[in-house]
Specification:
Blueprint: H1 8-27, H2 36-43, H3 47-54, H4 57-78, H5 89-106, H6 108-115, H7 126-139, H8 148-157, H9 161-170, H10 175-190
């Protein structure tokens, strides 16, 4: 039995909902205030369409964020250096952390909305578990580094959306300053490595 092809209006509605949600979260100073009713109105669809398509607000946010994550996921799984699987740890770890940080910087309010969903916390999110596993595997390959699981959590903590928001909105740091700080912190954790690492 073959899967049914979605109707054209369903595909169109889904795209409209994702675009409307994206715009609302990007403009909002407080992502928690964006409701399903707000998104439905902005997309020009009924609330029932949102619940049918995404289950709930968390499901919608998760799917919208997943579209942003897709290029990083593809690069990490199948791409060339520095994100791809053939890259030595001392190059790949900083590249992955920088890519995740840039994603959070470019999508601060959406990332905050996702972390604020309370849906088992950010540490249970599929993308977090994926990045943690990749980092842990890379950290395991670095001589002298103890407790790769904790180190992976600590490194990922430096890319949390609430920290990124604080550094930008409260501390007035630029994107480049935050990226530079993360690069230096990462180097302190993992060491300099071999020249080709």
């Amino acid at each position: 039995m073959t899967a049914r092809t979605p109707r054209k209006d369903a595909v169109r509605n889904r795209a409209a909902v994702l675009a409307a949600a994206d715009e609302l979260f990007a403009r909002s100073e407080s992502p928690a205030t964006i409701t399903m009713a707000d998104i439905a109105a902005a997309a020009g669809v009924g609330k029932a369409t949102l619940f049918r398509g995404f289950g709930d607000r968390t499901g919608l946010i998760r799917e919208l964020f997943a579209t942003r994550l897709e290029p990083i996921r593809t690069a990490v799984e199948d791409g060339p250096p520095p994100l791809g699987p053939g890259t030595p740890p001392h190059r790949r770890i900083p590249a992955l952390l920088d890519a995740v940080l840039c994603l959070k910087l470019d999508n601060r309010h959406l990332a905050l909305a996702l972390e604020d969903t309370g849906d088992a916390g950010p540490y249970r999110a599929e993308h977090y578990e994926r990045w943690h596993q990749v980092l842990r595997e890379m950290l395991d390959r670095i001589d002298g580094l103890a407790d790769s699981a904790f180190a992976a959590h600590a490194l990922l903590a430096a890319t949390r959306a609430d920290l990124v928001e604080h550094l930008v909105a409260q501390q007035g740091m630029t994107h480049e300053e935050i990226r530079d700080h993360l690069a230096r912190y990462t180097a302190q954790v993992i060491g300099a490595g071999a020249p080709d690492a």
